């Protein structure tokens, strides 16, 4: 339906342009038979021939020759076309004003007339090629945006697959360990895990979700991830209390949380993980920091794919409207993400 509307809109615009071009000479002429003949001979006939030249290039020659790199053929055909059009123009002009009438000695030399006519016929050719070039660029840009949108959906789906398996298996193993130690806590944990699964499977299928729901998911994710940690790791987070008016793309910050638990925890050393989110000057600001334990060359637990995917998503979702900063300082990994606030 959108494509059909675009076609009709294009036809309407072209029609209006030619109606205006054909109307002006008549509206500016005197109301006499001689004046009308001048309008027909020196305005309408040339405009009609320009229109034919324009659409031959716009519809056929530009796509079939110019954009196919057949430039020589394109030039030769248009030179022949201009010669034919000038011949038609001369023939039609003589029908209204025979040669003796025109050659009164006061007009410009015939060579000058043909030179000007040749230049005038190149105008619709250039116009047609330029317009087709612009349309192709717009179409290419639209296709790029659609491809980027599809890639964004694919990245989100990949994030689903990336999050679900190892996280859920770890959570189930932790719950299994809790069953004998603390049955009530195991029940509560299963309930939280079921909510996470529902959110991942159903609520994140839309392009945007309430930030309140996303924060609730993040809190449950953090709490479940804490189950597999020892007392050597301290985890804190501070998220704002919000209503449903603020919306964000789903699973936008979860890669940062997952990355912190993956690379900020040591079984032998003291570890620290912290997250903070705030609304500042019409921006959502997320900060995270954790102890940094550099990977060895034998550790293949991650290669920064999550952070790289996040950067790409931010570029697609908020071009020139976001900031992403990460650094390692004094043994801590720091990350800060800012995105515009949208209600």
From TrEMBL:
A Pfam family this chain is assigned to: His_kinase
Keywords: Kinase, Membrane, Transferase, Transmembrane, Transmembrane helix
Keyword hit for Manganese: no
Keyword field contains ATP-binding: no
Stored InterPro entries: Bact_2-comp_sensor_kinase, HATPase_C_sf, Sig_transdc_His_kin_internal
An example Gene Ontology molecular-function term: kinase activity
Transmembrane segments: 12-29, 41-60, 72-92, 112-131
Residues annotated as domain Signal transduction histidine kinase internal region: 155-232
Signal peptide (residue range): none
Source organism, top-level taxon: Bacteria
PANTHER family: SENSOR HISTIDINE KINASE YPDA (PTHR34220:SF7)
The name this protein goes by in its record: Histidine kinase
Annotated source species: Flagellimonas okinawensis
């Amino acid at each position: 339906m959108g494509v059909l509307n675009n076609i009709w809109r294009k036809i309407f615009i072209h029609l209006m342009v030619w109606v205006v071009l054909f109307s002006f000479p008549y509206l500016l002429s005197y109301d006499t038979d001689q004046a009308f003949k001048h309008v027909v001979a020196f305005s309408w006939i040339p405009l009609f021939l320009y229109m034919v030249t324009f659409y031959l290039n716009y519809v056929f020659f530009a796509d079939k020759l110019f954009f196919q790199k057949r430039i020589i053929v394109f030039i030769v055909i248009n030179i022949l076309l201009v010669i034919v059009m000038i011949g038609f123009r001369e023939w039609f002009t003589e029908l209204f004003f025979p040669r003796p009438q025109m050659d009164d000695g006061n007009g410009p030399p015939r060579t000058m007339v043909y030179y000007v006519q040749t230049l005038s016929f190149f105008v619709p050719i250039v116009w047609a090629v330029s317009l087709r070039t612009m349309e192709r660029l717009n179409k290419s840009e639209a296709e790029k945006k659609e491809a980027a949108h599809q890639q964004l959906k694919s990245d989100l789906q990949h994030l689903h697959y990336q999050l679900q398996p190892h996280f859920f298996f770890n959570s189930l193993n932790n719950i299994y360990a809790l069953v004998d130690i603390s049955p009530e806590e195991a029940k509560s944990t299963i309930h939280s895990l079921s909510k996470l699964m529902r959110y991942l499977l159903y609520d994140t299928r839309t392009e945007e979700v309430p930030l309140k729901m996303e924060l609730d998911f993040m809190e449950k994710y953090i709490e479940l991830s804490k189950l597999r940690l020892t007392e050597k790791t301290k985890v804190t987070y501070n998220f704002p209390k919000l209503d449903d008016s603020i919306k964000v793309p789903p699973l936008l910050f979860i890669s940062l949380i997952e990355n912190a638990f993956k690379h900020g925890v040591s079984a032998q050393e003291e570890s620290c993980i912290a997250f903070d989110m705030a609304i500042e000057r019409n921006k959502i600001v997320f900060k995270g920091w954790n102890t940094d334990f550099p990977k060895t060359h034998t550790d293949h637990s991650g290669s920064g794919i999550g952070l790289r995917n996040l950067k790409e998503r931010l570029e697609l979702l908020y071009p020139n409207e976001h900031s992403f900063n990460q650094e390692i300082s004094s043994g801590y990994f720091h990350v800060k993400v800012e995105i515009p606030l949208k209600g």
